[in-house]
Amino acid sequence: MTFRTSTWLLSLATLVSTNFLVPVLAAEQDAVQSTYSRQDNRHFYLGARVGSNYLKDACNEGVLDCDSTSLGYGLYGGYQFNPWFSLEGGLTDNGDFSSSNRGNNASVDIKGAEVSAMFTYGLSKNWSVYTRLGAAYQNIDKESSTYGEQSSNGWNGLVAVGVDYALSTRWSVRAEYQLIDGIGDSNISKADMYFTSLGLTYHFGQNKIQTVKAATQPVTREKCISRFAGVVCF
Known about the structure:
Blueprint: H1 3-35, E1 43-56, E2 65-67, E3 69-82, E4 85-101, E5 104-122, E6 127-144, E7 148-166, E8 171-185, E9 189-203, E10 224-227, E11 230-233
Antiparallel strand pairs: 1-3, 1-9, 2-4, 3-4, 4-5, 5-6, 6-7, 7-8, 8-9, 10-11
């Protein structure tokens, strides 16, 4: 291979890498960096949620009237250590449940607190999915015409799955399906509690993304004048 051929190939490779490979790699890098535009640093967050609770197996067979669903609401907050891991806690009023059977009327009030580890996977710049694993403390007060006032409290396992959508750098909404396993005891009966909720979250310390446009170089044009000896450009 001659020196002239080698020089020509080197110039072609430089031209291709400068005009094609570099822009493509830069675009991919920008896309990766913008995937977690809101979740790329450590920060605290706080939110509120509301939804529907369902107590599975809370009503025994033969009960004439049983309301095993209720409106629940609460607050949650946490600290995000990186784009995929957070620690979260919350307080929830799970509402009132009631039943009636041949003169025996009963009502149950449930309030609780929870702690969990959250694992998040980003799908795009705005969408992400997550799961939470932890424990929940439930305080249950039951009143019935037969047994009077009863109470139960204790820790139970918690698991939740959800989807999160970033409205902006500071606000996001999420939909979640949560299970707390086996709340209650043998005296007031046990049940699994399912909570389907919508939440609104505020992320502290998140600045707006500023788009920096690349500076454009002014285009210079040569001016040419005709002279007797030829054409002169400057």
